[in-house]
Amino acid sequence: MGLEPVEFSVLGPVRVLRSGAEVVLGGPQERALLALLFVRAGQPVPLSEIVEVLWGLRAPDSAANVVRRHVGSLRRLVEPGLPARAAGRWLARDAGGYRWAADAGSLDLLRFRRLREEAGRATPSRAFGLLTAALDLWRGPVADGLPAEVRERAGFDAVDREHLAAVREAADAALDAGVPDAVLPRLRRAAAAHPLDEPLLARLVRVLAAAGHRSEAVDVYRAVSGRLADELGIDPGAELRDAHRAVLLDPVSVPPVPAQLPHDLPTFTGREAELAEALGPLEDLSGTLLITAIDGMAGIGKTTLAVHWAHRIAGRFPDGQLYVDLRGFDPSGTAMSAGEAVRLFLDALGVPPERVPHATQAQAALYRSMLSGRRLLVLLDNARDTDQIRPLLPGTPGCLAIVTSRRRLPSLVAAHGARTLTLRPLDAGRARAFLARRLGAARLVGEDRAIGEITELCAGLPLALACVAARAAAHPHFPLSAVAAELRAAHGSLDAFSRTDTAANVGAVFSWSLAAVSPGAARLYRLLGLHPGPDVSAAAAAALAGLPVREARRLLAELAGVHLASEHAPGRYSLHDLLRAHAAELVEAERPEDEREAAVDRLYAYFLHTAHAADRILAPHADPPPPGPPPNGVAAEPPADDREALAWLTAEYPVLLAVLDGAARSGRDRLACLLAWSLEPFFDRRGHWHDGMAAQRTALASAVKLSDPGWEARGLLGLARAEGRLGLHDRSLPRLRGALELFTALGDGAGQAQTHRSLGWECDQQGDLRSALRHNQLALELFRAQDRPAAQASVLNSVGWYHALLGQYRQALSHCFEALALLQDLGDRYGQASTWDSIAYAQHGLGRHPHALLGYHNALTLYRELGVPYLEASTLVRIGDTHLATGAPDEAEEAWREALALFTRLGHPDADEVRERLSGNAGARDLA
Length: 928
Known about the structure:
Number of helices: 43
Shape: globular
Mean pLDDT: 84
Structural class: alpha/beta
Strand order of the largest sheet: 8-9-10-7-11
Number of strands: 14
Helix content: 55-70%
């Protein structure tokens, strides 16, 4: 058993809680001493300063002895089992005084400061969540309840000012994140308490306007102006005046909109006529949906034109721009499915995963409903055929859909009235303009013959011309005639594309560019033909080539310098489909099979081992099977915490899915099983249940091929969990029973326990709480026999939760406090949040409402730190319920309004239940 959990609070009344129960502190002087040590935590407080704070100028001769008695009393209160004269865990002598050895995990003030510091480095949305979590820690002024003179001598007012600064920062973050409603209740309270704080009141004016309360914002400004004149004899300052002026000039608040377009090329040229043709029909979009399909061979510049055009007209579509690369002609053969693409769009439009239906047709209908009445631009890049894009077309007038494809799409014209635009290779004049934009017009003087030859050798393809321009720019003193001669002498092929797109040997251009880079970069380029796409990080490239990450990063930059790769996002590189096909052709022709297979093994091992490390952080109780040692030359990137794990998994998500499919197709079945199992917590955390179901189905097929009953059982369990999340209980229950039979036959206690937990969740979904409790109790017995503390801690909370749901609150608390101590020792913050929520629910059931609020606020703080907005909102609802039970309807309404803002932003149906609570609360007030 770990150390007893202890928490200290100074943001409000001074409090100490041991295992969730409040410790009764001594008299005012002991509490004042404790508050001083808390505020100065981690630093020695000299005895002389303690005496001055406690007595001021009237300290008795025995003051030092009294302080020592207080110290001894505090030690016994906080650590009742501490032997006499033993060094305590929390309070120590230091530098002629005393030091409190707390950290951000045990003292609310330190946690507040850490959260505020993290918010300063975060995006607006995350910063607002962190600042809200920080402010929720405050229950009043620092050391509230102590005599005013003691608080003054201790300098506690300076810490109170940190609270006010955080409120202002939260208002700024809420405005930047587009959630002004969420900060408004807190901002109103702070403004009422500080009616002359102009920076704070300026933010109140701006937030009120952004939340749609323009008239109230104007009223606030007028009231503040009068108060400043009456009480201080001054006019409003510049910040407050600017806020008022902004409200008058821009009264309409524009909600955040998706803006997914890739960056536009500043060197765009050569397609002016086509651009004019595209712009023509956009004079009036009010009564129609416009679809334009741009077709042409690979490398002709379809995406470049579409993106440039989209940026030119983006302002006509105030509700945003959606973009997706459909990978219709990906060299790996793995085009994006329509279902995957529509789910990406739904996510961009703010639809929570639980609202996404299972069938692609229903997803497309929801997508069209989300676009109804809105004006959006939708760019569908690299489409394979009409069937792939039909579910992605808007169904509302005023929208524009731009489609690019190597194929003409006559059925899109016939069925949807699409306009078509076919791109041709650049002629000599346009090619000259293309090169002049990149090299400068002076470089082309007297080089007409060379330009014509370069254009012919590049077949007029912008992609090939860009490679030539990059080579010429790197050697500014070379005449273009010399560049043309080099290109003429180059050899290369691109048969896979020359048969279908053009007879021109553009592979010669790529091979010529490749000859200009170092041998290491050329080797990496060839190996990138083995990467499944759609893009590659430096770490993955390092594993593929068996190089240090720093060297791989340098080589990728070298390839990007000659346009053989593109850094489309910081640290992430992609190859055009033509270049990927060229690289794949070269590596196939020039490198032996064992070398190619070794490179793929290294790449797949990098993804598996890093995903496994992320899994251990996201779900420490899951205990996934170890992947074994990685091959030589592979260095996984184990994340440090939840944030790093989620960031890596999010960035590599499309690649991970491609690796899983590639592993299954290439006979690496055990790796496919391991990777699918390691990704399961991420699927669940992010709500990617449709992708999770597909991945687990692939893993199950691989397990069957392995003839391994253990992996088959895990495959059944993983697939059943994904199906259950999607409401497909008629499929999930039989699979769980099959998994339980296999695990039982194998004597796999951990597998049996995990399956019992999933069966318990299924029973919960059907309203059978007693069976849910029984399954979790069976899981607990099995995990205890296996000596798996992480899994045991998680299921202890589940057992406690079901006891609470059944009204057995004391049994619930017993299990949950045992779980909490284990989870704190393990550092499992997600598990701690869930357990605090369970504890609070049980305390509420027992009528211990202050204890319930404390537990809920602990859960809320952790959920905000972890970035789990749905659970944050759910906890806020229960906080409101508890406030209402204590006869505090104002506090209940505040919590519910915060929850409503979150649910509304997520588009979650639980928002309706919160609205009902708010409506009922308002009705009860009217009757009163």
